[in-house]
From TrEMBL:
Source organism per UniProt: Paramormyrops kingsleyae
Family the UniProt entry places it in: Belongs to the G protein gamma family.
Keyword Lipoprotein set for record: yes
Function: Guanine nucleotide-binding proteins (G proteins) are involved as a modulator or transducer in various transmembrane signaling systems. The beta and gamma chains are required for the GTPase activity, for replacement of GDP by GTP, and for G protein-effector interaction.
Keyword line: Cell membrane, Lipoprotein, Membrane, Methylation, Prenylation, Transducer
Gene Ontology biological process terms from the UniProt entry: G protein-coupled receptor signaling pathway
Subcellular location: Cell membrane
Protein name per UniProt: Guanine nucleotide-binding protein subunit gamma
Assembly and oligomerization: G proteins are composed of 3 units; alpha, beta and gamma.
Domain of life of the source: Eukaryota
One cellular-component annotation, GO: heterotrimeric G-protein complex
InterPro entries: G-protein_gamma, G-protein_gamma-like_dom, GGL_sf
Amino acid sequence: MARDMSDKELLKMELEQLQKEVKNERMPISTTAKELADWVEAHVGEDPLVKGVPEDKNPYKEKGGCVIT
């Protein structure tokens, strides 16, 4: 798509994107990091990567072992 556009059209698209981005509300990282940490701590009980998946609900559980005779 970008190959079919002239330099002027590409610059216009870039300018429009930058104008959208400048309108985004900015917050200090100290505030957002605290909010993120609080959210993670509040949802840690629901996280399968932290508490694990029950054996009966694990779709990747091995069905059987390998037997070599």
